[in-house]
Design brief:
alpha/beta, Rossmann fold, 10 helices, 8 strands, 11% strand, globular
């Protein structure tokens, strides 16, 4: 994920020069990097915490550069759940000088990074999310022990929902014959690994196979649809879909509505309504 790191640092340094005090906080503030994790933390914490994403809804997470508002948000946070991205480390190194009490947790520690998923859309695996929410709950209980029982019960119900989600996805995909996915950006590597699928991405902004190779692959695999994503250069996929006369459908891996979104993606791949 490319970002303007110099702009990052400039914004942070300017924010650090502000003399006004942040408003008093009614609830402890927890920040996450990507919007799906807003949902994860809220499912555990309920109304006990103020949970916000550093990357606002509607922004392109792959090229996002924080504004002053996002920088100030991180300055006021008590906990930060991240994924160990390079830009997070650069951001934290500066924020720590102004908010030394900020506690961070890398939710990707001890998690296998797929060689062919350079962006690590790791939340696309419900199996991995199970481990991550257990780590989130453990950290929240450590810092807010007064909510121990509440967080434990919320964790139990969330884990049950993830088990049901996994069953539903497997049932949705079990019947399909075409198990190859044509997509505009390689966001489904973990999803494909878990559910025995394969993806091929074609995006003019990134290193992709040639158009002729993708066309040949799609024809050999009898691919019947193409998947696009918000904020991506979808022209290449749309051109392929036009040549093959197959429909184009939109998915959004960054949707905060995680359970419904994962079911939608599975049904879209299975070509179900």
């Amino acid at each position: 994920m490319k970002r303007n790191y110099w702009l990052f640092l400039c914004l942070l340094l300017v924010a650090g020069c502000r003399t006004s005090l942040p408003p008093s906080k009614v609830r402890p503030l927890v920040v996450v990097t990507y919007s799906p994790y807003t949902y994860f933390v809220k499912r555990i914490a309920g109304p006990t915490l103020d949970v916000r994403s550093l990357i606002p809804s509607g922004e392109n997470p792959l090229v996002f550069t924080p504004s002053m508002k996002e920088v100030k948000l991180a300055y006021d946070a008590d906990l930060w759940f991240g994924l160990g991205k390079a830009f997070e480390k650069k951001l934290f190194s500066v924020i720590a000088t102004h908010n030394p009490d900020l506690v961070t947790l890398n939710l990707c520690n001890n998690t296998e990074s797929l060689e062919y998923d350079k962006e690590d859309f790791i939340w696309m695996s419900p199996k991995i999310v199970r481990t991550q929410i257990e780590n989130i709950a453990e950290k929240l209980i450590e810092y807010f022990p007064e909510n121990h029982s509440f967080y434990k019960e919320n964790l139990r119900t969330f884990l049950a929902d993830l088990e049901e989600l996994d069953r539903d996805i497997r049932m949705t995909l079990d019947h399909i014959d075409v198990r190859s996915i044509l997509i505009s950006y390689p966001a489904l590597a973990y999803f494909c690994r878990d559910y025995l699928l394969e993806q091929i991405a074609f995006n003019a902004d990134h290193h992709s196979p040639s158009l002729s190779l993708v066309l040949k692959y799609a024809q050999e695999k009898h691919i019947a649809q193409a998947l696009t994503q918000p904020h991506q250069n979808n022209q290449g996929i749309q051109s392929i879909a036009k040549i093959l006369n197959i429909p184009v459908k939109m998915i959004d891996p960054f949707s905060e509505n995680y359970l419904a979104n994962m079911r939608y993606i599975a049904k879209t791949i299975a070509n179900l309504p």
